[in-house]
Amino acid sequence: MNGTLLVIEDNEQNFYMMRFLLEKHGFTIIGAENGRLGIEMALRHKPRAILLDIQLPEMDGYAVAAELKKHDELADIPIIAVTSYAMVGDREQILTAGATGYIEKPINPETFVDEIIHYLPDKERGEIR
Amino acid sequence: MAKNRPVNQTINHKTTRSGRPAHTLIFTLLLLCTNILPAAAGDKTVIVGLYENPPKIFTDASGKPSGIFIDIIENIAKKENWKLHYVSGTWSDGLNRLEKGEIDLMPDVAYTATRAEIFEFHKIPVLSSWYNVYAPRGNRIKSILDLDEKRILVLERSVQQEAFARLSKGFGLNISLIPIADYNTMFTMVAAGEADAAITNRFYGIMNAKKFGLEDTAVIFEPSDLFFASAKGDPKHLLKTIDGHLAVLKKDTQSAYYSSIKRWTAEEVRFNVPSWLKISVLIISVILLTSLAGSFVLKHHLNLRTRELQTALQQFTNIVEFLPDATFVVDQDNKIIAWNQACEAMTGVKKEMLLGKGDFAYAEPFFGERRPILIDLLNLPEKEIEETYKYIQRKGDRLYAESYIPRLRGGQGAHLWGVAAPLYDHNGRRCGAIETVRDVTEQKQMEEALRASEREYRELMMLANSIILRWSRDGKITFLNEFGLRFFGYTEAEIIGRHVVGTIVPENETTGRDLRQLIEEICTNPKKYERNINENMLSNGESVWIDWTNKAVLDDTGRMKEVLSIGSDITDRKQAEEQIRRLNDDLRRHAEILEQRVNERTAELAAAMEKAQAADRIKSAFLATMSHELRTPLNSIIGFTGIMLQGLAGPMNEEQNKQLTMVQNSSRHLLSLINDVLDISKIEAGQLDLSMSSFDLRESIEKMVKLVSPLAERKGIDLKIDNPEDISTIITDQRRIEQIIINLLNNAIKFTEKGQVCVTCLNKNDLYLLSVSDTGIGIQPDKIPELFQPFHQIDTGLSRKHEGTGLGLSICKKLLDMMGGTIEVKSIWGQGSTFTISIPKQPGGLS
């Protein structure tokens, strides 16, 4: 059930909170503080899922998602956007760029992990919402 | 006299036949009279043509009409009470007269198609005849071929003339066919050797050939039926009567018809009588003949004289008839002796009604009464005529007068021009007078029309409110009408004969155009300048503009003689045009300035808009940044507070738990504040876009009710839902609708301390109506208008006991506006409120 999740997030406190919550549920967390590094790590570690912030320095989340999707070996890895962009269209834009799911910040610590698990493909639910 | 007794002529005929020569003279005189003068009154008069063609028709030795046709027509006349009147002449004369209607019947006419076009025929033939060629006895003519190179006589204008010409031509014969006026002459000529043969009908031949030492040849042709012919249309209705009698006559072999034929064609019957009788008869005959000889000689002279007179009268009548003008002649007793056809045509009165009448009878057809007319004034002394009748002109012994007679031309009146002249006999004695009258009505009318048209033309030219000008090829004015003279300020004497340039046309136009040259061009080609506007000048030098129509006036040979120019003063129009042109120029200038200003202003606005758009972009960027930047720290606050309260970071005591819960509530409130501010900013900047999708409204309502139910439960408020089956699919922004519903539910629960909150939904046409009612504190009526303003939370007097941003209802209203929906509220202060929203089932509110 457990596995490695890649969290691409430049805000240290947010990264800490997500790692805390996810490790409590037994996931192994690897992190990247910018998009370029995130892509490298994704290619190297092939994580079970990638949690992606949108507001990143240099290369933003949309570009990162689009880049990740170019690699066939990463095609089955769900990308879950975790973002504080709450404008209309943000959700559609990131889903178009290649994300599988979308979680709005601020996160609800009571439901956050369940929402992540929900997006993982090897649960029997199979389909992607 | 017995009632049915035939008139004089028939009596005469009978008495002659009875062989009483002593009376013949008297009766012949009677005959003469009746021939000249028609019956005064009574039964139908029939004028019959008479010509010489014995035995069918001829004048016998006593000058009386005789023959088969005469016997028959006299038989019919007797029964019908017709008065017969004979007009003798040649065959050709007879046909001409019949054609002209001068005679009613022409006997002995063979039917041909050509004749049937001119004449009318009855149906039962009187006789059947054919033509025979007669030649001197001992001739060797066995067939028509033997007639080649021969001179043959034929009756002029007869059927046989045509027929024989056709016949000989068919055989290719060269025969000289000589037309002769009567048979008698023909036989005489052949007998004298002046011609080789003669063509006559069989009747004439049988009777006369032997007498001239001629005999019939083997050449016989053109069998034909002979009839009486009348003028076309049978104006006197004679033909049917003739047919009726012929039918009866031909049935009975003892009838007058057969006895006539027998009499005129049969050979003489010879008797064997005793010699004593012969001697007695001889002696008696000698005595008789001797006694009769004298009267025969007398009778012969009288006949000759009578015929001469008849011919002279006939010629005279013919001359008068020939005259194209209405003409009548009176004798010395003022009795009418001629009344020609033109007279009949003009007055409608036939000559038969007038001939022989005196006592001013000729005036009646013209004036409707008997009175003296022009012809009667011939007897007045010259002086009296000059004094009394000023309208009468006199030249020599002739009188001329013009008069208007209202009765004529069918009551329309006629202008007549008449001449009367006396007639003198060879001794120079007055023997009558003649008057000729000509209808000059049309001539008069034409003269009048011409005068009227000339008058109109003159009036038109002189009085027209246009300038009418004529000028010669060398530019000299030949005519200028009254209006033109007044207009230009000249008298006729001052302007006629002067050149147009320098008088009414200036040398140059103010526009610079050379008008002398223009005038020359108009002279050369008026057609090109048919319509021309140019400047002119008045005698006082004032300039005017005239619109001219120019037309060439041609002489009899078709060469241009003059130019006719008709002009209207358009100076005012020209000035108005100039004014309009100036105004237009001003307008154009102003328009240009205006356009420039508009362009400048547009540029300014574009710049301003650019600025505004830049500001908008900055605002959007600011909003996006704010959204992110505010949420990021909140993310930590809310996240870690949650983790702590969950006990994931280790156990806490009750007080820590209580205080951390307060942090959590405050941070949630802060989050909702941020969300609302962002929403309202986005809406106001027009940056909030709706995301349309189709979904089940029922489900959304139930979901939202479920979300707020823990809150209601905690406050002990009854949360009811009335969500009927017919609430289903809607196309709109699901997230925003749900945001509105939850906002209304939160408000209702928030402001209600006890009682209930009820959600009701209705399906209404194109809309869904959703109401949320509560039993809460309600809203004061004067506060209701402020309810949907942003940043407004009604002051409840409890000093913000109820948390909230005050933006919720304002956002709801703005979202519903965008969706095409509405929101309204009904509330009773202290009792509760009902918020009702309407949402279209489809965008644009269309079903």
Describe the structure.
The complex is a heterodimer of chains A (129) and B (847). Chain A has 129 residues and is an alpha/beta fold. Helix content of chain A is 38%, strand content 18%. Chain A has helices at residues 12-24, 35-45, 61-69, 90-97, 112-119, and strands spanning 4-8, 28-32, 49-52, 79-83, 101-104. A 5-stranded parallel beta sheet of chain A has the order 2-1-3-4-5, sandwiched between helices. The two termini of chain A are 20 Å apart. With 847 residues, chain B is an alpha+beta fold. Chain B folds into 5 domains: 8-124 and 234-275, Periplasmic binding protein-like II (D-Maltodextrin-Binding Protein, domain 2), CATH 3.40.190.10; 130-222, D-Maltodextrin-Binding Protein, domain 2 (3-Layer(aba) Sandwich), CATH 3.40.190.10; 323-446, PAS domain (Beta-Lactamase), CATH 3.30.450.20; 464-569, Beta-Lactamase, CATH 3.30.450.20; 689-845, Heat Shock Protein 90 (2-Layer Sandwich). In chain B, strands 5, 6, 7, 8, 9, 10 and 11 form a 7-stranded mixed beta sheet that branches. A 6-stranded antiparallel beta sheet of chain B has the order 13-12-17-16-15-14. In chain B, strand 20 and strand 21 form a beta hairpin. The A-B interface holds A 11, 13-14, 17, 20-21, 24, 55, 84-89, 92, 105-110 and B 623-624, 627-628, 631-632, 634-640, 642-643, 646, 648-649, 671, 675, 678, 682, 687-689, 691.
Question: Could you give a quick summary of the protein structure above?
Answer:
The complex is a heterodimer of chains A (129) and B (847). Chain A has 129 residues and is of the alpha/beta class. In chain A, 38% of the residues lie in helices and 18% in strands.
CATH class category name of chain A? Alpha Beta
Q: How does the helix and strand content of chain B classify structurally?
A: alpha+beta
**CATH structural architecture of chain A:** 3-Layer(aba) Sandwich
If helices are DSSP runs of H or I spanning 4 or more residues, what is the number of helices of chain A?
A: 5
List how many beta strands of chain B DSSP finds: 29
Strand fraction of chain B equals 15-25%
At the third CATH level, what is the topology name of the largest domain in chain B?
D-Maltodextrin-Binding Protein, domain 2
Tell me the strand percentage band of chain A: 15-25%
